[in-house]
Amino acid sequence: MTTRIEDRFAKLKAEGRPALVNFIMGGDPDHETCLQIMRDLPGAGADIIELGMPFSDPMADGPSIQKAGIRALKAGASLQKTLDIVKGFRAGDDETPVILMGYFNPIYIYGVARFVAAALEAGVDGLIVVDLPPEMDDELCLPALEAGLNFIRLATPTTDDKRLPAVLKNTSGFVYYVSITGITGAAAPDAGKVAKAVERIKRHTDLPVCVGFGVRTAEQAVEIGKGADGVVVGSAIVSAIENSLEEGRAGSRTVEAALSVVRDLSSGLRASKA
Amino acid sequence: MNQALNPNSFRAGPDEEGRFGKFGGRFVAETLMPLVLDLQEQWTWAKSDPGFKRELDALNATYTGRPSPLYFAERLTEKLGGAKIYFKRDELNHTGSHKINNCLGQILLARKMGKTRIIAETGAGQHGVATATVCARFGLPCVVYMGATDVERQAPNVFRMKLLGAEVVPVTAGHGTLKDAMNEAMRDWVTNVEETYYLIGTAAGMHPYPEMVRDFQSVIGKEAREQMLAAEGRLPDLLVAAVGGGSNAIGLFHPFLDDKDVAIVGVEAGGKGLDGDEHCASLTAGSPGVLHGNRTYLLQNEDGQIKEGHSISAGLDYPGIGPEHSWLKDTGRVEYVPIMDTEALDAFQLLTRTEGIIPALEPAHALAEVVKRAPKMGKDKIIIMNLCGRGDKDVHTAAKHLGVEI
Question: Are residues A231 and A184 in contact, defined by beta-carbon separation less than 8 angstroms?
Answer without folding.
Answer: no
